[in-house]
Amino acid sequence: GENVEQHPSTLSVQEGDSAVIKCTYSDSASNYFPWYKQELGKGPQLIIDIRSNVGEKKDQRIAVTLNKTAKHFSLHITETQPEDSAVYFCAATMNRDDKIIFGKGTRLHILP
Amino acid sequence: GAGVSQSPRYKVAKRGQDVALRCDPISGHVSLFWYQQALGQGPEFLTYFQNEAQLDKSGLPSDRFFAERPEGSVSTLKIQRTQQEDSAVYLCASRPLAGGREQFFGPGTRLTVL
Predict the structure, then answer these.
(1) Quick one: closest CA in A to B49, which residue?
(2) Three-class SS string for chain B?
């Protein structure tokens, strides 16, 4: 089955700097890659997603890139702010009615 | 509008007890998913419903875990004879019939088995 690897597990960046989280997936049939943000005591919340027919997508300070050949995808957050501190999960799924396979998460700390 | 709600938010059970966790999806959402999130880990798929039909239960870890959605709305995840390794946050997610592929997650139920 699909396996999603995510790194780093913890990331600390100075406020205003950029943060990058990288993921790999194993099954070339995966075609949808959501990114979720989870704050303490809350459920995961979708922040951005990308489909396999797109190489890059941007939404304000957040961007995702996808390299289908290498089975790599990344999350980029620019101009980081204190409210960006949270756990971020990359994920992959194959079909619309299919389960999401999550990475293990990255705990992002924004330092003042 | 109201999001996915789950109850109870916290549950403490003694080993061997049965527990029932409830999920109220967003009104009108056809698809419902259950995930288990161990401490410090990503959520892991348990089971999936489309309306009242349970289409995938491949993630249920043992026959002590049972889920139902009898009227295609509220769902209950039941765990019989709880064990310490069942301690985790149980997340429910729902998705509408039409539209994108986003799953909308509830806040989860934190289960602690003593």
Answers:
(1) A97
(2) CCCCEEECCEEEECCCCCEEEEEECCCCCCEEEEEEECCCCCCEEEEEEECCEEEECCCCCCCCEEEECCCCCCEEEEECCCCHHHCEEEEEEEECCCCCCCCEECCCEEEEEC
Q: B33–A99: do the CB atoms touch at under 8 Å?
A: yes
Q: What is the mean pLDDT of residues B80-86?
A: 98
Q: Inter-chain contact B107–A104, Cβ cutoff 8 Å?
A: no
Residue B100 has pLDDT above 80, yes or no: no
| Residue of chain A whose Cα is closest to the Cα of B3 | A43
Chain B contact present for A1, CB below 8 A: no
Closest listed residue to residue B64, CA positions, set B23, B16, B108, B113: B16
Q: Which residue has the higher pLDDT, B75 or B98?
A: B75
Q: A45 CB near a chain B CB, below 8 Å?
A: yes
Contacts of B35 in chain A (CB under 8 A): 100
With 90 as the cut, is the pLDDT of residue B2 above it?
A: no
Q: Is the pLDDT of residue B24 over 80?
A: yes
Lowest mean pLDDT among B33-47, B59-73, B88-102: B88-102
